[in-house]
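the two lines:
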Amino acid sequence: MNARDPERIERYGAATRINHWIVAISFVLLALSGLALFHPALFWLTNLFGGGPWTRILHPFIGCFMVAAFLLLSVKLWRDNMLQQRDWIWLRKIGDVVNNREQNLPEVGRYNGGQKILFFTIIVCLACLLLSGILIWRQYFSGYFSVDLVRLGALAHAFFGFVLICAIIVHIYAGIWVKGSIRAMTRGWVTPGWAWKHHRAWFREVTRGIQQR
Amino acid sequence: MPLQSLDVVRRSATTLPSPEVRGAHTGQVAKLIDTTKCIGCKACQVACMEWNDLRDEIGTCTGHYDNPADLSEHSWTLMRYAEYENPKGDLEWLIRKDGCMHCEDPGCLKACPSPGAIVQYANGIVDFQEENCIGCGYCIAGCPFDIPRISKKDKKVYKCTLCSDRVAVGLEPACVKACPTGAIVFGTKEDMTQHAQERIVDLKSRGFDQAGLYDPAGVGGTHVMYVLHHADQPLLYSGLPEKPRISPTVGLWKGVTKPLALFAIAATAAIGFLHYIGIGPNETDEQDEDAARREQEKTP
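prediction for all of em together
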């Protein structure tokens, strides 16, 4: 996993990986507890958290924890997720993307257009979930807001929760679909072939970096 | 416990019917509050405290007659006093007994995410079942009348039960029993509507030409109704809403969007699965590794 091993290119350091999985586990807990109160058919999920009242108590605290953890992660990932011209071309060729025809796509840096869109989707969703979540956090905050604002908060919270869950399903599936991605986030490294195939511009940057060292 | 009454026509966060074989065959109930007969004695408040064993905290004087100042988990009904100067320049004291209106289409029940925390009986009474309450406060957002109050101590919501325990054994609600002027009466909704009409005829003959019944259609009618001298201006009565209805925001939040959203989530996952089966994973093979190796060697 170090620079001298030509078979491995480091993609995520230990701190980033741990940070990612803290966010990921928080998200799963939030999605389960949120869905439990989202639709009656899923109310049984409250059993995983010790019942309805405990689900209601825990959900917002886990939410705050996740926002804080994601904030740390996003600071690390921010620079590489800035959208560039080539990302828009990549996104326009989404048909080639889903059909595994990567030879038709422009070269990709550390992240592709889809990953960057996901990154900003998460940021927007989390910001809105945090704000709307405060509005409907009855125990501490709802009393300070008008009932119309609380109603709007409830609707917005459900909506952005829904968007985020769909976005993360896409994210998880992308990890399953593009083989070698999960290892990048569990072990931290990818093979040169993986980097060359999926993130060629980044691969060149990294190889040049190794040679210069 | 509540289901065994076998007359539950609506139950929060429940997709299938509840036991409802016992209907209200003698008619749904209603409490009629005649604001024109009310003298503001607060006997109803005391009766409510007594029957329900509730004691609110002793507060401080806020400069008006309302005491306590607002509804709370300990005060399920409250006389609200409004001083209104009519166009003739006379002062009118409009006193309204506030509390749960027992909507035919209850916004609290619609908003509640916990199965069976709010039920509606065949007779029309909307009742909170605190053992199922999770303390989220969504009912507060759902209510068009600002009625439910959450306890800071036990995090459960409380409101007027229309003395469902008394009504179940053929008694009238405690407030009705205590009212010394007959301003609060109780019976079938039909009888109460008819009684109200008689009162309105009487009031009109005495110069209150805008007298009328408050039984708002926006929430399907209510099982607590008012006779108002100024039915054209309910807001005069300490902010009684003019056209109450379940907020469209709540309707959107709790309506058809929920099953649709759930379907969309499942569809997203299903599309992923089908993509994997149909198109398959994106793998890195030896050719890619070779290409990478060649390029690594080339790099100066």
